């Protein structure tokens, strides 16, 4: 027996209803398994519950929009940016300058790299690379370090 909708959007037979529901649930299961990111599956299920339990059109519409947002999101990809060249001379001078300042103020605070690491949430190896001028710190990193050392950021980088 085929599943058909008549013009009033109701099914002609109970078998038609069953077949339509089975097909819809199979498709929904595939969507949950193949389309929705694993981190969003619980939110999707919760929104489905809200959608079907909604007491008014507005609540149903909000749940529907949330479901669509989860289904239609663009996948996010992260890739490593490898530079084909070394930093320029001026940048390297700045990295060395800032690295020496971090080292000096850390030592003045009688802090090891490990302690600074714990206070900033940065890996100790990253702090080591910053102090040796091998990495360029972001402004956010400098703020964390300055806060952990209880100094103004301008003491580490006058241009900040």
Automatic annotation (TrEMBL):
Keywords: DNA-binding. PROSITE patterns: HTH_CROC1. InterPro entries: Cro/C1-type_HTH, Lambda_DNA-bd_dom_sf, TransReg_Diox_bact_type. Residues 102-156 form the HTH cro/C1-type domain. It holds the Pfam family HTH_3. PANTHER family: HTH-TYPE TRANSCRIPTIONAL REGULATOR (PTHR46797), METHYLPHOSPHONATE SYNTHASE (PTHR46797:SF1). This is Anaerobic benzoate catabolism transcriptional regulator. The lineage of its organism: Bacteria, Pseudomonadati, Planctomycetota, Planctomycetia, Planctomycetales.
């Amino acid at each position: 027996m085929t599943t058909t909708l008549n013009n009033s959007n109701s099914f002609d037979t109970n078998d038609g209803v069953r077949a339509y529901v089975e097909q819809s649930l199979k498709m929904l299961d595939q969507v949950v398994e193949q389309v929705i990111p694993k981190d969003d599956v619980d939110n999707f299920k919760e929104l489905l519950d809200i959608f079907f339990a909604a007491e008014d059109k507005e609540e149903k519409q909000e749940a529907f929009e949330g479901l669509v947002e989860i289904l239609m999101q663009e996948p996010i990809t992260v890739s490593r940016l490898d530079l084909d060249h070394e930093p320029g001379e001026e940048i390297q001078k700045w990295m060395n300058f800032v690295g020496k300042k971090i080292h000096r103020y850390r030592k003045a605070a009688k802090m090891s790299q490990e302690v600074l690491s714990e206070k900033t949430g940065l890996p100790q190896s990253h702090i080591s690379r910053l102090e040796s001028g091998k990495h360029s710190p972001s402004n956010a990193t400098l703020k964390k370090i300055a806060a952990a050392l209880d100094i103004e950021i301008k003491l580490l980088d006058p241009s900040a």
